[in-house]
Amino acid sequence: MKAQFTFTPKSGYNIKDKLFGLLQNPDFLDYLTHSEGQEIFIQMSPAVKTSEKQLMYAYYHGPLLSVAMQAFEDAGYEMMNKLKTDYLLKVQCAASTMVKNGKEEPYLEDKGAMTKDRLRKYITDCIFFLESELDVMNIPDAEEYKNREYYGVKGFRSVRNPK
Q1: Segment 146-149 long-range contacts (CB within 8 Å, at least 24 positions apart)
Q2: What is the maximum span of the chain, computed from C-alpha positions, in angstroms?
Q3: Contact 64/123 with Cβ under 8 angstroms?
Q4: How many C-beta atoms surround the C-beta of residue 67 within 10 A?
């Protein structure tokens, strides 16, 4: 059984004063009760705020690529992995052209060079591609991206932070 707890150490003279918030957390106390007699691994790190772009990368490389990989396999592609799936999605949703030496040449945009807005549009395009071309209807957390496309920034924010 795994569990995560957050607490802010308080100032005080002894360790009990510093850990007061953790010792009063009912979830932490329940976890200790259920883990009696077992060795517990504890990992501590400061809570950090993750940027929106990092969250989008995590979403893309996590659930979205996994769903896309399965969708491509179901469509008949063989031996798919995340690298091949990423490439196929880039071909479909991040292909563009540029003029070089007077000729128009195709190229694939790099996700690392995309702005936050372009990355959001790329992920939305991937979602729409999977739904329309590969008939995938169970993409986790896709509604947030689709709502931004339908309702714009104001609707996107109100969907993310309903008040």
Answers
A1: 148/120, 148/124, 149/124
A2: 74
A3: yes
A4: 20
